[in-house]
Every structure is written in C-alpha cells, then in structure tokens.
Write a structure and sequence with these properties.
The complex is a heterodimer of chains A (657) and B (402).
Chain A lengths: L9 E6 L11 H9 L4 E7 L5 H13 L4 E6 L2 H14 L7 E5 L1 H5 L6 H21 L6 E4 L3 E5 L3 H12 L3 E5 L22 H14 L3 E4 L2 E9 L2 E8 L21 E2 L8 E2 L2 E2 L12 E2 L6 H11 L10 E7 L1 E4 L3 E3 L15 E3 H9 L8 E8 L19 H14 L1 H4 L4 E6 L9 H9 L3 E4 L7 E3 L6 E4 L9 E5 L2 E6 L1 E3 L6 H5 L26 E3 L9 H19 L3 E4 L4 E3 L9 H5 L5 E6 L3 E6 L9 H5 L5 E3 L4 H12 L5
Parallel strand pairs in A: 1-2, 1-3, 3-4, 6-7, 6-16, 7-8, 16-27, 18-25, 19-20, 19-25, 20-21
Antiparallel strand pairs in A: 5-28, 9-10, 10-15, 11-12, 13-14, 17-26, 22-23, 23-24, 29-32, 30-31
Helix pairs in contact in A: 1-5, 2-3, 5-17, 6-7, 6-14, 9-10, 10-12
Chain B lengths: L16 E3 L4 H7 L13 H5 L11 H9 L2 H6 L2 H4 L5 H5 L6 H15 L7 H4 L2 H22 L10 H4 L2 H34 L9 H21 L2 H5 L6 H37 L5 H28 L10 H26 L2 H20 L8 H24 L1
Helix pairs in contact in B: 3-7, 9-17, 11-18, 12-18, 14-15, 15-16, 16-17
The chains are: A alpha/beta (657), B mainly alpha (402).
Amino acid sequence: MTEDKRWPRLGFYVCHCGGNISDYVDVVKVRDALAEEPGVVVARDVMFACSDSSQNEMIADIKNLKLDRIVVASCTPRLHEITFRNVADRGGLNRYTYYHANIREQTSWAHRDDKEGATVKAIRHSRAAVAYARLSEPLESIKAPVTPSVLVVGGGIAGIRAAIDLADAGIAVHLIEREPFLGGRTAQLTNSYPQDSKGSEVAARLIAEARKRDGIAIYTNAELVGLDGYIGNFEARVKLNPRYFKSSQAKTSLPEQLGGEAPSKFDYGLSKEGPVLMPPFSGAYPELPSLNMEACSEDCARSISQAYGDAVDLHQKSESLTIRAGAVIAAAGFDPYEPKEGEFGYRTHPKVVTLQQLHRLVELKMLKDVHNIAFIYCVGSRQVKTGDEDVNEYCSRYCCNAAMSISLVLLRMREELGGDLRLYHLYRDIRTYGRNEVLYEEALKKEVVFIKYSEEDPPAVSAAGGRLTVTVKDLLTVLDDKLEIPVDMVVLVTGMVPKQSNDALPQILRVPKGADRFLLEVHPKLKPVETAMAGVFIAGTCQGPKDVRETLASAQAASSKAAGIALMTQLELDPFVASVDPKMCNLTKACAAECEYGAIEFKEFPGLGEKAWVNGARCKGCGACVAVCPTGAIQLKGLSNEQLKAQIEALGRKVEI
Amino acid sequence: MATGSTPRPRRKVTEMAVQVDSHLMTDLKKMGAFDISACYNCGNCTAICPLSVEGHELPRKLIRYAILGLKDKIVSCPEVWLCYFCGECSTSCPRTADPGQFMMSARRYAIRRCSFGRVADAFYSSKLLSLLALSVFPLILLGIFATSHGPIITDEVDMWSFIPMDLIHELGLIVMAFLGLSVLANLFIMYRNLSRAAGAAPSAKVKLTRRAGIWLKALITIGIVEVLAQRRFTKCDDNSSEAQSKKGTYKYWAHMAVFWGFLGLAGATLIDYGINEYGLTVSRDISRVLGIVSGIVMMIGAAYFIYKRVKKDEVFSTFSHFSDWIFLILLFFGGLTGFMVTSFLYAGMAEATYISLVIHLMFSFDLLITLPFTKFAHAMYRPFALWIVTARDQVSAAGKTT
C-alpha cells in the first residue's frame, strides 16, 4: 500500500494449536514480542486460529482496527494458507496480503527437547513473517481465457479412452496419431489380462466408441511437431503426413511383387509388409489403406496407380495443421525393450523371441511343434547401473502378469502346439501383484516350472549342435550344477522402455523426463497425471510401464483433469510470477534463455522499445530469471528481493525472552 | 552326467550342468504326486520334517528336483529313503501340495529306476501289467505242482507226500538264488547312483583301516538300531497334535509287527528246514508255534495297514497306489494261508491242507521272488541307503577332524 504512504497496520495471531504448539513454544512470549514490532497494531494468542470464532475475531479486527495485513503463526501453510487467505478476503483485504509463519512443523514439533529454543525460533519466524507482510502488495490472480477443447497426443487405448471421456463431457477433442491406424500397442496383443480379452478387441471396442462421438476429430499419420501457448490456450503444430489413399476400392489386384519384403512393424518383424499398409486388425480405423511412399519405387507407384485409380492420389503432400486447445494429454505410448543382438541369443537364433513377438506368433497361428519353452524374465528391466550409461533400473510391472497370462493361453493350446508342452519360467522375482496372483496360481497348478535366477548369474542361451539350450543356476534348488534345459523356443520377457520416436516429445511439451526417461508427473502420489507444464497431462505408458487397466485408469484421470480446464470459462492462477520493470530492462534476454517454461516474451513498449515481458499464465514463479537478470529488472511478485532481505534481517535480530 | 537307461549323447564330465527332463513330473504324478505342482518352494515341509537334518534336507530339495525334471538327482539322493511318511509336511503345507505323498511317489519312482533291467517298471507302470507280472511265478509253480505232485493221501494229512520235500527244497533254492542275485544287482545300481550324487570320495585323508572300521560299525549300528528297532520310525512323528502323535505310534507298532512277524516266519521256516534237511534235534513244535505266533503278528500288522488304507483317515493312507495294495495283500494272504495250512493240518483235514499249502506256497514264493521290484524292496533299499549315508557322513566327519 505504498500509495497510501502510511505504515501498514498489521494484525498478528499466534496459535496454541490446542497444545501442539503451546506445549513447547511459549505463545504468550511470542505474542508479546511481536506486539512490539513496528506496524503491529494487534497481537493475539488464540487456541485454534483456524476455528470459526478465531476467524471471525480476525475479521472483526480487520474492520475495527482498520488492519491491512494479517499474519498467522500456526501450522504449515499447506494446511491453512487458503483458510486465512479467505479470512483476508472476507475481511475486505487483498487475499495475498496475508502471510504465515509455520511454528508447528518447523518449530514446536521439531524442538520438543528445547522449549526455550523453540520459543526463540518461533519469535524469529514470526518476525520474519511480519517483515515480509509489511512489504507485501495487493496482488491480483492471473486470469486467462480458455480454449474449450483438448488435444490428445497418441491414438492408443489411453488416447482413445481419454478422447471418449472428454467428448462425453461435451468437450471438443483433437486426437492425433502418428501411425496410419489407431489402436496402438494393445491391438498387437493376442491376449490381455485379466479376463483374457484379445488386445485388438479391446482397441476395436474403444475405437468404435470413439467413432460414435461427434466431438472427436481423429487425425492419423499426424505428428506433433510443436506446442506453443500455455494452459488454457495451447497452439499445437501438427504435421499431417499423406496417406495417398482416398478410398480402399481397388480396381484390380495388386501385382505380387508389391507383397513386400520389409519386416512388418505391427507383427514385430514376424511377417513381411509392402508399401501398402492395410488396416492391421478387425475394427481398425481408418478403414483406408495407407501408402508408405518411402518404400515405394516408381514402378510400385505406377502399379498402385493402375490398381486403385481414383482411389489414390499419389500427389498428396504433407500438410501443416494448427490445433488450438485448452489442455493437452500426452498418451504417446512406449516401445517394448528391444534386446541387443546376441542378448540371450536374440536375433542370433530364430527361435529366441520377445514376449511381444510371442503374442504375434500366437495371433498369426505361427506356433507349431513347440514342446519346451523357456521364458526369461526381466529382460531389459531392473538392470543394475554400473557405469554412466542409461539403464532401465525400473520394473516394467506388466511383464510377469503378461508372461503368466500368455503361458495359460499356450497351455490351453497344448493340442494345437503338438500335445506335449512344458513351460519353464526363469525369473528373478515374481511380481504378479493384485488379482494377477491368480494367474501365477493357475500357472503353478498347471505345472509351469519356475526357476529363480540371480541377476549376477543370468541364464545363458546356446544353440550348440543345433539344439536350443538354456543353462541356468536355479536358486531354489540345492544343486551345485547348473540346469540345462533343452527347449524349442526362448521367450524373452521384455519390458517397456520410453518410445524412441518420442524422443523430441519432452522438448515439444516442455515436460521433464524422470530418472527412467519417461515423461514425469509433478508428484507420483499427489499429482500423478499433472506435469510441470500446467495444462499438459500424461496418460498411459509414456509416463512409465503400465498394463491395460492402469493405462485406461490413468487416461481417465488425465481426461478429467483436462476437462477441468477445458470447461472453465476463465482460468485463475496464483499471482506469484515474475514481472519485468520495462524501464530497467536492458534486453539482455538472459531471462528467456534461462526460462524452462517459455514464459518470457518480448514486446514493444510505448516509448521504451522492445523489452522483456512475462506471460503470467506460463510462469511457474521459479525465479531462475530473477537470478540471471543483470539489472534486477525482473522480480517475482510476492517474493521480491526486498521482502527476502527484510525476512533475513528479521530472522537475524536478537531475541530476548 | 547321463544315467539310467535312457540313451543320451555323451557329455563332457567337466561341464557342470544337469539336463532337465520335461516328463519326470508326468511320471511322478502317475504314481501319486498329484498336487505337488502347487508347490511354491516355501520350505515349510523341510522346516517341519522331524527327520530332516543339515546335509540331508527333505522333502523340499527333492520336490525341486522333481519339478525341474532332474530324474537322476531324484534316484541318486538317499533322502528318498530317509522319509517314513509321518505326513506332518502334508498337514502343514500352505499350498496343500501334499509333500508326504510326493515323497512316497519319489520312492516308488526310485524303486523303478534302481531295479536291474527296469524290471520294477512291470510292477509300477500299470495295474494289468503288474497283475500279469505277479502271476508269472505262481502259474509256473502251479504247473509244476500239477505235473509233479505226489499221491494225494486223504485218510491222514501227509503234506510231504503230496508235495515232495525235495521239490520244495529245490524250488526254494532257485527262488533264493534269484532273489539274492536280484537284491545284489539292485543294490549295486543303487550304490552306483548314490555314489554319483556324492561325487568324489568323501575323504581320502582317512586311512583305509579306519574307513573300513567306520563302515563296519555303521553296518552293525544300522542293522540293530534301524532295522531291528527302527528308531528313525519313532522320530518320524506328526507332533501337530496328541491324536496325530498317537496315530504315529500305532503305525510304528503295526510296522514293527509286520517286520518281526515276517522275521519270525522266516525263522520258523529255517528251523523247519533244519529239522527236515539236517536232522536238527529240536521239537517241531518250536517252529510250529513260532510260525503261528509270527504269522498272527504279521497279519495283525498287515491288517492294520489294510484297514487304514481302506479308511483313508490318515495322511499316509489317503492315497494308495496299486503297488501298496499288492504288497499288503501278498503279506496278508501269505500269512493267512500259512495259518490255514497249519490249522487244517492240526484239524486233520487233508484236502484242505493240500490246497491251502499250494496257495500258501504260491503267495509266499511270489512275495519273495518279486521282493526286489515291489514295495517290499524298501526293506533292502532303506537300510542300505541308511548305511551308506551314515558311513559316508562319519568318514567325512573323521576327515575334517584329522
């Protein structure tokens, strides 16, 4: 209230917290000490500051004593900051002129053995709070308009599920998928636990639901290349790659040489694909083929032209699209861990496959005459860090369950596979959490053999003499020798890794990566789908390994958070953000280089020229820009250097009790 | 490392690996280990087993061998024979995987695998084959008696006219020779298997004379303590409740009855044989009384087990493999028919005596000649295994102290 030119009138309240504070801190001494602070008009000790009567007393004080600041010394602001801000509001003050001192968690509870010291500390903290409040200025929350739509990045089950929920809430959804078809990795599974549903059926059902809703715009072959804007007002730049097909009506059949020799992505290389990609499963969307022009020679283009005529347009070009959205959901998925060449015989022996490949083998009915199968668990997961190289230290959590589940499928197919079937599961630990324990139970009862290996002495796969053999030291058996298991197939139970083609995504979304290189949430427990970038939420496996159920649950969580933004007419944000005094700005742009959130922009100021400007909706109030500004032109609102200095000075002053 | 009769490619001895056989569990399940795949390796069974000791843990170790398909390990570890099936592991198994019954199945499996020429397979693989194998010798016997019996004297009972003593004598010699050779052959196979498991000589540091002393002492100790008194059987006691413990005691005494009854019958036969062949000057009544008393004792023991197996009220008796029945039936009827022979003899019923004599000879010769291949084989394998284990452990302990 600098324009008033009068000393602020402060009310100070110290809380007993029913003994939680007053048993260790002499609150009367605190009250008396603070009463002498300049500007403090009234100092009171109260039994429970948060009680209605105390709140009303504060409001009465504000009115009767014409207070313009209040300070409460009580518990952590996490508990009651909003309570007392509301008190300030109701008393007719600016809500940001309230300030707190935490003398419970940081004082009385922490220093039960030193009551005198606790009292001194409480006085120091309270003085600092008063010093801060003296310099506080009325602030206005930041208001931003909201675009009432949501962009969903990724057309796997998480993205589709989120899109459906948002559409049901009446919100326009833009669903973009980089691949030519929706469905994601789930559609590639021959079986998903629990309840044994085919992955493609799960995907197809979600796709059908999504298609029923008008509010969902689906873009395939669509890649997110940039994201501007901020919460409530994002602008996504999307590159639409050409599909070339306008309809699927072929006039003649395709020449055979177009059958293709490239390893199929959908079948994890177990089948070949040509340049024309057909919908890979029943219920896939769009029902249009897509042409992979890179794999299509001139001859190929000519034959396709002849075969499809008007149904194709080989002159399609990629387009750029700008999508405006109030919130963004990243549901960009994962990659299965790709074992290195030779890792457990992978790619050196054709009968060594990954868990994901096994799903395709079953689905394509390519399994025949297999009798003994070894599953090696934790391939690419729970790796032990030895050097600087990134390793996957995490457990991929779905793989144990998936290995059990597909094993039960194989056991049911026993006759088809040649009758005699024995499955060896070589594991480090079995983590069939929750209901999935039933799968483990069933596998045990169906004579799946479980062998525990140590990560220090992993199994070895050899194909000497043409016979695939797994050699392993079993920790569960009193045995000096290693076991030698002759097998027909080895399945590497591979986990999930961050999707390689998503490498640019953290940069684009301005969302940090966690220790495991997946997209990182703000807090794993308290804010599990929110990211450091306000308005950007994460769903599904781009956040870390999840199974189908967990993916869908996180998609619904993310969609409700996104809906909460898209349905607002206006966003109100805390005002504790950086702001620039344009007169002091030298335009070094050091602040912009430092800002992780892209909150600093440059604007023309009348009479001053181009100066830095903070987009309050984007700013997180981290203060990184304040630290690098050579002129001090950029300051945090509600956390100015003056306030900090005053607090430090107050903390250091001698206390006599 | 390959053993047994399944031909396998020769392996280098230096390679420390043991091959897994995916069919072992199927075999074991056929012989009673129905629930064992529910095992999740907790080890409660071994912790609770009153006979499991350090160095000779059971049954979990064997269960793992079975689940993994380590055929050779199962037959080459003496622990199969260290179990007396009190059933406490089965009652306390959190997975109701019935480890006790598994141990029985492993024993059945070991009998099959330790018999020469896999003869025991005939008594374990199918009921029909088993009956056929059992009737081979009695039918031969019947043929011999039919063609070469003496005059049937009906006005007085004269067994040795009906079936000449010499014939019995010669048949007895043939049976005993076959039995002896089979026992030796089977024990040799077992010894070879157990040696393979033990690896190198336990301790070369112990002098040969000392080792011989240890082996001899162990033989005597095992013979007295474990064969005659069967002390381990008393330790094998499901102590989970007083009632269980009591049942265990009954089982011990029933087993002792069968054992001592059989021993008594053998003794009576020997005495009788001595009187007949070598003019032993003792009263024939001694062998008769001993025979009658022993026969009754053995029949009581066998009857107890038959009753238990019919009633299925104890862990050990809930499942009976047909090989269990065959053994008990041979024992019981061997005793019963012998008893009948004596009774008819004293009653002066000539024809009944002759008929029951033929039947008795068929049963008792069959019991003896099939001994190394049926459940009866435990009478030779168990003491032998105990002897080897005890002696080896003592030699190795002696090696450590010197």
